[in-house]
Amino acid sequence: MRHLPLAVPHMSETEAEEVFGWILDGEASEEEIARFLLAMTDRSETAEEIAGAARALRARLIPVAAPEGTVDCCGTGGDGHHTLNVSTAVSLVVAACGVPVAKHGNRAASSKAGAADTLEALGLDMDAAGRTAEKTLAEIGICFLFAKNHHPAMGRIQPIRQKLGKRTIFNLMGPLSNPAGVKRQLIGIARPGYVPIYADAKARLGTERTFIVSGDESIDELSLAGGNELADVTGNDFEMRRVSADMAGLEHAPVEAIRGGDPAHNAKALKALLDGMPGAYRDAVLFNAAGTLIVAGRTEDWREGAAMAAEALDSGKAAHLLARWIELAK
Predict the structure, then answer these.
(1) How far is CA 45 from each of CA 30, 236, 327, rounded to the nearest angstrom?
(2) Are 119 and 110 in contact (CB under 8 A)?
């Protein structure tokens, strides 16, 4: 067995890739891994470490074929706000706009309802969705890439994460290791001040275009409440800017307005959203969908992106897409 460094010194990208290779290959004990992850969280991970760890995870994933222009929209989780599943709804809306979406996700690790939990409560057979991922992505433009199916090395890590019950570097690695190899993403993280560090990690890995976003109240998505930090990552570089809901023609609302619950609660809210329910949840989805549509190259205007997303909801396209997905994933 390998012994992980006790003091967890800052590592180079190459060193991080090697150490996380040991962790993912089961060459360290659960106790050492848990201590190591907590120590990294306490002192904050560097861009080099995140990029190196993501490279280790990428090297061990099971890939899937994806159409050109496929995107992903996800949050790193661990923000403690327990909101409704925004990125899951955004995935349906963006796919209904004609942009292929490879939704990479998992069950809840530190929240009450992860993307997989809520989709399952809506009637999607998660095992079947995994088996038919390439088929549904090719035929209807959406799939769910259940992390356990594509990152077998994570099987031994997930119980450790659940036991810890808090954010670790694995929250940061997941969005950077989509099995469809997406080149365009919107990724929400739970720390506004950390956006440039995470953007640096993404730039080290390369991308056509990715938005790294964080609400001022430490929420891992574009927030309606106030302002948002946004890093626009293209190629191996990025630039920072500020964005807010009014840029998309949307009303501000407190985080409490989109507070979620267990999978059944969140699934009911998502179903109501698809059926035309107005309110803060809808606006949060429109805001994040607008950002994802910009990243996808469908528009450069926040208001136009929100309008495109609204049409996908109001026309019933997003609801129809979910029904088709449930039917095909059997």
Answers:
(1) 20, 19, 42
(2) no
Query: For the sheet containing 207-215, what is the strand order?
Result: 142-146, 101-105, 71-75, 184-188, 207-215, 227-235, 237-244
140-187 pLDDT tens trace: 999 999 888 899 988 888 889 889 988 899 989 989 999 999 999 999
Sign of the alpha-carbon torsion through 307, 310, 312, 314: negative
Binding site, residues?
A: 75, 78-79, 83, 85-88, 103-111, 115, 161, 220-221
Binding-site residues for 5-phospho-alpha-D-ribose 1-diphosphate, please?
75, 78-79, 83, 85-88, 103-111, 115
245 CB-contact burial (10 Å; exposed 0-12 / middle 13-18 / buried 19+): buried
Nearest partner of 135 among 169, 100, 91, 183, judged by Cα = 100
Contacts of 247 (CB under 8 A, 6+ apart): 302, 303
Residue pointed to by tokens 């995870």:
57
- DSSP β-bridge partners for residue 242: 229
* pLDDT for the residue 114: 76
| Residue list for the binding site for anthranilate | 75, 106, 161
| Chain centre distance of CA 168 | 15
DSSP secondary structure letters along 15-73 = HHHHHHHHHHTT-S-HHHHHHHHHHHHHH---HHHHHHHHHHHHTT-------TT-EEE
Buried residues in 248-280 as b, exposed as e (16+ CB within 10 A): bbbeebebebbebeebebbbebbeebbeeeeeb
pLDDT tens digits along 94-144: 999 999 999 997 765 545 667 888 999 999 998 899 999 999 999 999 999
Q: What is the pLDDT of residues 36-72, one digit of tens each?
A: 999 999 999 999 999 999 999 999 999 999 999 999 9
Rg (Cα) of the chain, in Å, rounded?
18
Annotation: binding site for Mg(2+): 87, 220-221
Give the separation between CA 80 and CA 176, rounded to whole angstroms: 21
